[in-house]
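hiii, so i know i said id send this last week but things got crazy w the move. better late than never?? heres the sequnce for the chain we talked about at the cafe, plus the structure i predicted for it. fair warning i was half asleep when i ran it
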Amino acid sequence: MFASGFIGVEHQLWVWLIAMIRPGAAFLAAPIFGARAVPVQLRLILSLAVGMAAMNSVVFELPPGGIASIAGAMLVAGEVLAGLAMGFALQIGYAAAFVAGETIANAMGLGFASMVDPQSGQSTQVVGQFLSILATFLLLGMDGHLMLIAYVVQSYQALPPGGPMLSNDAIYGLVMFGGALLGAGLTVALPVGFALVLIQLVMGMLARSAPSLNLFAVGMPVALLAGLILLAIAAPIMAQGIAEALRQGLDQAEIIAGGQ
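okay and structure toks below
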């Protein structure tokens, strides 16, 4: 039996558990935090630290029936939805680097060259892996991870636990922002991809003018060498495009945190 000083321990533990849900869901969906290389224990500790700080800014009471009730289930669902929406918004901006990398790799003839992505644990093409590492450095350089944590804390003001859930407009805005992912990725890949398409056209004309020329023996090394040179030249411009996609993801996360 607990002593009199431990009467409120169970209530406090439930409050801490609720506080961990929204930051934990955001970190699960967001880049860097959601990487498989990040230990689950570290994610839990970080979620608890952020959630405890955020819960101090709002007045929260557990549902009368506890968590194992309809009101408690709706409370947990609202917290999970809010956290996943903010983390997924940043993940969409981050994924523009993968779209650009796959577009460039296919134009270079490196569609068969792949490696394991540490973020998702899935196989991805080498150019996409290079651009994802660049996107990670850019996100850390612009303090995007800290901005995401700040947005999660700010969201408790507009969307307090047990209060209103995300509006239909916020969810619709996130869906429409996801539709802009393909355009952002193609914009990043445009400087290199367009030049590689021109090289492929030139090689096609050479193959027509000189049928004895082995297109596979000549075209693929030319496209690969030109792609590497173009990547080195266009890296600053592509970095600007990736940074802009990340800023749009952070802006979308801020909109969701405001409950709009």
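btw The beta strands are 114-116, 123-125. thought thatd interest u
miss u guys!!
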